[in-house]
Specification:
3-stranded antiparallel sheet, 7-stranded antiparallel sheet, 256 residues, alpha+beta
């Protein structure tokens, strides 16, 4: 999904909070499949393999005084699979020049031992190679809640857009996963919610509504076929709920 997001966002332009917007949208997309993910603010140092010169470094992670611009960088961490995703790593020109797309790595290579299911503690470092560049991510000391929680003004203002973008991204990914050459492997994924969604939409018609939201022709709770968004499709009661399961934002309850 990170590469799908990048292909959709290409040419649209990079908003000031591109890493926050991308990570929050992707968080909802993963969440529809029952995959937990969390934003993690980080410092990023980029060094050339042929010298000691530091090419770039973020610092002083903070929001602007009016709360509309995030000064810093953030990742999306998937604690249960011990992976991290930097979906907007190509906002940095020297990395974009390599044309390798979003970065996905394992947190098992962090400077501190990380147990599955845990977030990265402050000051944890991860080293990843990309082309001739060495990327060093350092988890910032600033508490996550004060930077990227659901009550931060920018995050709260755009919660509906991030949610909608994530649902649409997950829907587009399902269209790719139901391809005859792919669906067999997708059905073996260790995510019960993803497998349940695939059973419903494997052969379902789809369309985009007036708001450009993807909808599938699927049975509602009364068994009547209707055009439903992915997060509106009823699933068996034993299916794990989508993430995030509680948002802390009025009007956006967790969906079954």
């Amino acid at each position: 999904m990170p590469h799908l997001w990048a292909s959709i966002a290409e040419g649209v332009g990079a908003p000031s909070n591109i890493c926050v917007d991308a990570a929050l949208a992707l968080r909802h997309a993963y969440g529809q499949y029952g995959i937990r993910s969390e934003l993690q603010p980080v410092d990023l140092s980029i060094r050339s393999q042929h010298g000691d010169t530091e090419v770039f470094r973020t610092s002083e992670q903070s929001w602007s005084e009016d709360g509309t611009v995030f000064h810093g960088h953030c990742l999306l961490v998937l604690p249960d699979s011990q992976r991290m995703v930097d979906v907007t790593v190509e906002q940095f020109a020297q990395i974009a020049a390599l044309q390798q797309g979003p970065l996905v790595g394992r947190t098992t290579h962090a400077s501190e031992e990380i147990t599955a299911g845990e977030l990265l503690p402050p000051r944890t470092q991860m080293l990843l190679q990309r082309g001739d560049l060495l990327l060093r991510y350092t988890v910032v000391d600033e508490p996550l809640a004060s930077l990227l929680n659901d009550h931060q003004p920018y995050v709260r203002l755009h919660v509906a857009k991030h949610h909608s973008a994530g649902i649409n991204l997950a829907s587009l990914m399902l269209l790719a996963l139901r391809d005859p050459e792919v669906i067999g492997r997708a059905r073996q994924a260790p995510y019960p919610r993803l497998r349940a969604l695939l059973r419903v939409v494997a052969d379902a018609d789809h369309q985009a509504d007036e708001q450009r939201d993807f909808r599938f022709l699927a049975p509602d709770r009364d068994g009547q076929e209707r055009w439903l968004r992915l997060d509106e499709i009823p699933l068996p009661p034993t299916t794990p709920a989508a993430f995030p399961r509680t948002t802390g934002i009025e009007g956006t309850p967790a969906r079954p």
